[in-house]
């Protein structure tokens, strides 16, 4: 499975998902337990069905968990290094114009390879700083958009 480019990418996605699924699930469970039962009771008295309770009570009350988990998942997917390095080390590769093109080399692994394997520390540091700035800007935009959808308690 790790010998072909597309199946190797799929293996990295499955392993990364398996790695963080329990952590993310615990955040959702804690958020769901924080929804007051009185709100569901009042909605039932008012004649709301299960879909309406989910749409108008549960999802808005769990919106903070969506913000947190989207933030963590987005940043961890960009910073994916350990699974990528341990499973494929950026391979499988093909040769293009005399240079290897790695099929599963993500950005964090590319920074590592350029800095430590290629011994270009300045280039690796410059890529890391740009990577940091891109991650901060994406994270701020994502949190800003999700915070507008949350309700304040």
From TrEMBL:
CDD domains associated with the record: TM_PBP2
Lipid bilayer topology: Multi-pass membrane protein
Location of the ABC transmembrane type-1 domain: 1-142
Cited InterPro entries: MetI-like, MetI-like_sf, UgpAE/MalFG_permease
TM segment ranges: 6-31, 57-78, 126-145
Any one biological process term the GO annotation gives: transmembrane transport
A single GO cellular-component term on record: plasma membrane
Major subcellular location class: membrane
Subcellular location: Cell membrane
Protein keywords: Cell membrane, Membrane, Transmembrane, Transmembrane helix, Transport
Family: Belongs to the binding-protein-dependent transport system permease family.
The protein, known as: ABC-type transporter, integral membrane subunit
Organism: Candidatus Moduliflexus flocculans
